[in-house]
Design a protein that fits this description.
There is one protein chain. This protein is mainly α. It has one domain. Helix content is 82%, strand content 0%. The relative contact order is 0.13. Pfam families: Fung_rhodopsin (PF20684). This is Rhodopsin domain-containing protein. Keywords: Membrane, Transmembrane, Transmembrane helix. It is a multi-pass membrane protein.
């Protein structure tokens, strides 16, 4: 099956849209319905912001610089820029992953401490 960079970019955009919609719904519930925010909400928002950069670097690398293709199909300048976008994307991926996990930890901590006090 041939490599399709447009399909990869579309999948990345769809996953990004799902992530942003999830964070927007989370903030709607926590800010407007419950009037209660916590550290985990801000960590989730930070993760969404960093994930924006990761998605942009992935789309740029795939569509513009030929990331994912054979090196013989890519010019040397695009090859170098593609490696830079991959490196930046990896840094942003790890940062996003860290923020998501911290948000999850703070969410669990908030839930567990609330329920252990009432028991």
């Amino acid at each position: 099956m041939p490599y399709d960079p447009l399909a990869c970019a579309v999948i990345c955009i769809v996953l990004y849209a799902i992530a942003v919609i999830s964070v927007i719904l989370r903030f709607y519930v926590r800010f407007y319905l419950l009037n209660n925010t916590s550290t985990d909400d801000y960590l989730a928002a930070g993760a969404a912001i960093v994930y924006t950069g990761f998605s942009l670097s992935y789309i740029l690398g795939v569509l513009v610089y030929g990331v994912g293709r054979y090196s013989s199909e890519v010019s040397p300048g695009d090859y170098e820029n593609g490696l830079k976008t991959v490196f930046i994307g990896e840094l942003l991926y790890f940062s996003t992953n860290l923020l998501v996990k911290l948000s999850f930890i703070f969410t669990l901590s908030r839930i567990v401490t609330r329920h252990t006090r009432t028991v």
